[in-house]
Amino acid sequence: MGKFAKWLGAGAGFTMGGPIGAILGFVVGSFIDGLSIEDLAEEQQEYQRNTQQQARRGRATSGDFEISLLILASIVIKADGKIDRRELDYVRMYFVKMYGKERANHAFKLFSGIMKKQISTRQVCLQIRQHMSHSTRLQLLHFLFGIAQADGQVIAPEEQEIRKIAGYLYINEYDYASIRAMFYDSSNSAYQMLEISKNATDDEVKKAYRKMAKKYHPDKLQGLGEEHMQGAQEKFQKIQAAYEKIKKERGMN
Fold first, then answer.
1. Which domains does the chain have, with CATH numbers?
2. How far apart are CA 185 and CA 147, in angstroms?
3. Burial bucket for residue 3 (CB in 10 Å: 0-12, 13-18, 19+)
4. CA 112, CA 4: separation in Å to the nearest integer?
5. pLDDT per residue over 3-51, tens digit each?
6. Which of 64, 112, 135, 250 sits in a 20 to 30 Å window from 126, CA-based?
7. 117-145 pLDDT, tens per residue?
8. Distance between CA atoms of 17 and 20, rounded to whole angstroms?
């Protein structure tokens, strides 16, 4: 079994089964003749037997997050009926930044195959929702908006697809609007990030900031590994910047 198959088998957990596993089996089978999803599952089990830091059974691993990102990214990129090179480059750049060049190359090889596959958004999201925490699902949504904006703007078909994904992932309207506001520069964006209106009192602003800082704190994603801390830090910093902007506009201490 080659390096690519070993990377995939070692990194994933829950994504080896269900509808996501079926997608992986189709894609990997087209790369490596005779290799099945069962072969990859055996590779994963061997990896877990030989590592000292096993993921708890049923909990998402870094590899699960990686595969879920790739599949959801393919849905958003194809939402407008065309594939923009800038969006593909964003995915590659993001993965190189998170995982390093070698692992990112493996991921992008898988991504190229996923892009050719017809995917049921609902089925994939239901599987992700069962195994990923709320904080992890918010991080997925943040990444998807970043992809959509990579070509300069988030167009209507892309946002419609992201909103549909958010619904299937049980991300409520307040959380959705908060993350969406991080990618739109409007007079109301800072308030939307904190999930409050412009009519909020100064005390309500402070309370909202504390709540959102806790919700988006990078420690919420510690279970996925250090490679995901940078993406979580970006969200956290945007919340801090939104709070500072409101404080400055209001002359708050």
1. 1-171 (no CATH), 172-253 (1.10.287.110)
2. 17
3. exposed
4. 14
5. 655 556 556 678 878 888 888 877 877 665 544 555 555 544 544 444 3
6. 112
7. 889 999 999 999 999 989 889 999 998 99
8. 6
